[in-house]
Amino acid sequence: MFGIHDLTLFIISGLLLNIMPGPDSLLIMTRSATQGWRAGSAATLGICAGTMVHILAAALGLSAVLSTSAAAFTVVKWIGAAYIVYMGIGMLRAKLRDEAPQLPAVQPLAWRKIFFQGFLTNVLNPKVALFFLAFVPQFISADSSSKPLAFIVLGTIFNFNGMLYCHGLALFTAFASTRLKIKPLVSLWLNRTMGGLFLALGARLALSEQH
């Protein structure tokens, strides 16, 4: 249908690719560990919304600009890297809040803000756009009558499977955090450690080259 072939292989490959660690999974784990699974789910929905933007842009040919224009790629890359670094700095500056008579807890972030964090982290990463341009067409026949539609169908399947995995990751992280009874101070330093990793990821994105 739509010239799509090897759908089972596509789904399996997509799931394996989703398991690979990156800024998206780190954000989900951080929010789930410090604020519970609902916060992780908010990040997941934002990430999936950003992924859908990449899918539609690639299907319409807009992402091809990033693969052919060094200037466009560099602009998006630096904006994305700056935002990831900004998030990392925010995590490093996390503080404890007093909640008498309970122990202090890490200052929570609104779910709406977490959603947009996930969205911007994903949509401002040009590597995601290039990934879809390189990966998805391999499963579309050259004689497909509607390549854009086939691209959107495959991209949506990839995004849906990724959403299921990320929600599972959020639930698992939140459950593990609860079972281990992570103390507020440990949660604070976990947040800061993740902030340091985001700084490293932002630097890595900034130094990445167009392929």
UniProtKB/TrEMBL annotation:
InterPro entries: LeuE-type. It comes from the Bacteria. It holds the Pfam family LysE. It is found in: Cell membrane. Its main location: membrane. It is a multi-pass membrane protein. One of its GO terms (cellular component) is plasma membrane. The keyword Magnesium does not apply. The chain crosses the membrane at residues 37-63, 75-94, 114-136, 148-176, 188-207. The keyword Transmembrane applies. Keywords: Cell membrane, Membrane, Transmembrane, Transmembrane helix. One of its GO terms (molecular function) is amino acid transmembrane transporter activity. PANTHER family: ARGININE EXPORTER PROTEIN ARGO, ARGININE EXPORTER PROTEIN ARGO-RELATED. This is LysE family translocator. It comes from Duganella aquatilis.
